[in-house]
Every structure is written in structure tokens, then in C-alpha cells.
Amino acid sequence: MPGQHRWRKRFAGHVCRWTMPREAILKLLSQTTKHLSAKEIYSALLRSYPGIGLTTVYRTLDLLEKTGMIKKFNFRQGESRYEFASENKPHHHHLICTSCGKIIDYSDFADEELELVDKSAKHLAEKYKFLVQDHNIEFYGLCQQCQKD
Asked: Within this chain, do residues 76 and 139 fall inside the same structural domain, yes or no?
């Protein structure tokens, strides 16, 4: 697998060892554009790795998020969603359909948004003595299909 060596090297700085579930989850997330839940990841992996447990998937996702290898999102749908954190993927935000749950990545105004977010982050950091480490912009509404329905 092309990214495996890079993943292991990146992971080496952390206290934990490299395992099959970690590799399998990273491989799955790196090969999809969908924002998968832990249960969806578990179901997808269960076919190839029948010994994997749902608890292992949750623990592994937490660890991979802490290492910065994946990103975790809470889109008001009751369960977290995950995506691969690739250096090659442009900075983006999300449009979330409140009817069907569809998630659309967009980066149309990324430069303008980043400029505004950076300005806001600097102001908030100064005013509240708060270290801003990340941000996420989400818009909620109805996708094209749900508007027709």
C-alpha cells in the first residue's frame, strides 16, 4: 500500500504500536470521499476482518484523530463522522442536508473564508486569551434532491 510506510512513520512518534485495525481504518478512509460513522467503518471492515470489534474501531478512531491522521465531525446527526486528513486534500468546509444527511464538501470561497477566520481567530485569541487550534464551517439546509421531494 503506497501510504502505509508514510502512515507508520507518522505514527511512530506516538506511544502506541502500529496495528492491523489502524491500518485498515486509514486505508478505508483514504479511499473514500464519504464521511463515515464508526458503525459504517465497522460494517465495511467486518467483511475483510471478521475478528475486529466495534469497541476497537471506536478506540482506534479516537487515537487516529489525536494523531491528526483523521478528522472527526459532529454534524447534528447523533453520531460522529470521520474523514482522512490528507495533506493533498484542499481546505474545505461542509454543506449538510438536514433531511437526508447528505454531506457535501466545498472549497469555493476557501481563501476568503480562511482570511476571515484567521482575522477572527487572532481577535478571539487576544480578547479571551484562547489558543485557536482549528475551525470548521458548516451550513445546514436542504440538498437539491430533498428540495424536489
From this structure: no
